[in-house]
Amino acid sequence: QVQLVESGGGSVQSGGFLRLSCAASGSIASIKTMGWYRQAPGKTRELVAFINKAGSPVYVDSVKGRFTISRDNAKSTVTLQMNDLKPEDTAVYYCNVDTGLDGPYYYWGQGTQVTVSS
Asked: How many CB atoms within 10 Å of residue 67?
């Protein structure tokens, strides 16, 4: 079992920035990738970014150049720095970790609201 606690989020104006953090506890040795998903009202949950144990990140095209994901393996934390935020970034953001061996097995945080006004 892995528990995820998120912090950060809030409301900003377009062009602003926010920082999301997520701390994992429990069976942290089993964690492979750590990442962030988001879900806007009326839309399906989508991947924002993830990062593997070696620190290699992957981003969805819409956030490339604006968001930066980082990971501290010693502290079992993952952070998403979000710059130049746009109204279309408005969503509930969920921390996610994959602990699967033969396939993905995900744990999720409780979600944190990010609202960007124009």
From this structure: 23
Question: pLDDT tens, 20-44?
Answer: 999 999 999 999 999 999 999 999 9
Q: For residue 65, give every residue at least 6 positions away whose Cβ sits within 8 Å of its Cβ, in sequence order, or none.
A: none
CA-derived radius of gyration, the chain:
14
Region of residue 99 (left: phi > 0; alpha: psi -120 to 50; beta: else): alpha
Contacts of 12 (CB under 8 A, 6+ apart): 18, 85, 115, 116, 117
* Beta pairing, strands 67-72 & 77-82: antiparallel
Q: Which residue has the tokens 């970034």?
A: 89
Instruction: Categorize the per-residue pLDDT at 103 as very low, low, confident or very high, splitting at 50, 70 and 90.
Output: confident
Distance CA 49, CA 68 (A): 8
